[in-house]
């Protein structure tokens, strides 16, 4: 676990290493998303699982995760991904639409990057409207 120093293998470090592959401005994200194996939706959900496994979503948890990423992400970035993940989990129709979008268009889908996904989720639309936008975007 994140706080266990005695274990030789830390399964969460593997997940955190995957998450650390995308950071920076939009242009950097566009370059990196062509080679990384996870969409923004997937990264958000993995990060949410990591935070949930810690038992709390306190500021200290976000700080510890950011520290384990060896300064690849700031605490605010971790919070942003976690917030998007929680919104996605609360909207199953939108989640299904995003999965279908990824299936059809792969990494070239319009909502593959965190910038576009975060923009959609910050509109605070109801599930059906957000799913409609994801489907027809």
Structure, explained:
The chain is mainly α and 137 residues long. It has one domain. It is built from 8 helices and no strands. Helix 1 packs antiparallel against helix 3 and helix 6 packs parallel to helix 8. The protein is globular and about 40 Å long.
Give unreliable regions as ranges. Answer: 1-11, 21-25
Question: Could you tell me the strand content as a percent range?
Answer: under 5%
Note the main sheet: none
Cα end-to-end separation: 39 Å
> Element order, helices and strands?
HHHHHHHH
The average pLDDT score comes to 76
Backbone CA Rg: 15 Å
Please give the domain count. 1
Query: In percent, how helical is the residue content?
Result: 55-70%
Number of helices: 8
> What structural class do you assign from the helix and strand content?
mainly alpha
Shape: globular
Report the strand count. 0
Supply the key terms.
137 residues, mainly alpha, globular
Give the gist of this structure.
Helices cover 64% and strands 0% of the residues. With 137 residues, it is an all-alpha fold.
Task: Show the helix and strand layout.
Blueprint: H1 11-19, H2 26-33, H3 40-53, H4 59-68, H5 75-89, H6 92-105, H7 114-121, H8 127-136
